[in-house]
Amino acid sequence: MSALTVYPDDQPQAGESFFELDAIQQQLKALDVRFERWSADFAFAEDADTSTIIKAYQGPVEQLQADYGLKSVDVVKLYPDHPEKAALRKKFLSEHIHDDFEVRFFIEGRGLFCLHVKDKVYLILCEQGDLISVPAGTPHWFDMGEAPHFKCIRLFTTPEGWVATFTGSAIAQSFPTLDQYLAQSA
């Protein structure tokens, strides 16, 4: 189940959680964060290639491209047996910003997007069917957990794709990781 918890940025133990789609969207809309649920136009095999996956979501992908001027689309996947999972996790767990929108649609699995806006931290649990767009310049980090399992469509405004500028802040270390967040919610 998708979830959002909003914390004061200096009180990682004092969060307010939201579980209903409308409530999550209302909280995130104030930050110019798009949060939606998508479904495929047709069923596809688990091992489908990138073009088949993107074609299954062609309508919404084309709408996002028109809305944000997105130029490149790809599919990224990461599973527990990936040899570089620890290094990738460490990189994404550091607070960073992008010059363009970060748009992710979760085809399978889950991940935790964490936004640091003004004096608040927003932890957004994204699961299969969830789309999130993080506005350019928004400090954030992402956790895929110790045993990552996700497949996402990624959209970018530049052909270079994922390019981050790290803030140097250690704030991410003060807030729950994906695994901790899931344990607290159980």
Word description of this protein:
The structure is a single chain. The chain is α+β, with helices and mostly antiparallel strands. The chain has a single domain, classed as Sandwich (Jelly Rolls), CATH 2.60.120. The chain is built from five helices and eleven strands. Strands 1, 2, 3, 4, 6, 7, 8, 9 and 10 form a nine-stranded antiparallel β-sheet that branches. Strands 5-11 form a two-stranded antiparallel ribbon. The longest helix has 11 residues, at 58-68.
Please tag this protein with its features.
alpha+beta, 5 helices, two-stranded antiparallel ribbon, 186 residues, Jelly Rolls, nine-stranded antiparallel sheet
* % residues in beta strands: 25-35%
CATH topology: Jelly Rolls
Pattern of helices and strands: EEHEHHEHEEEEEEEH
Number of helices: 5
* Low-pLDDT sequence parts: none
Indicate the topology.
Elements: E1 3-8, E2 16-18, H1 21-29, E3 34-37, H2 50-56, H3 58-68, E4 72-78, H4 85-92, E5 96-97, E6 102-117, E7 120-127, E8 130-134, E9 140-143, E10 150-156, E11 165-166, H5 178-185
Antiparallel strand pairs: 1-2, 1-7, 3-8, 4-10, 5-11, 6-7, 6-8, 6-9, 6-10
Briefly summarize what is shown.
With 186 residues, the protein is α+β, with helices and mostly antiparallel strands. It has a single domain (3-185), classed as Jelly Rolls (Sandwich).
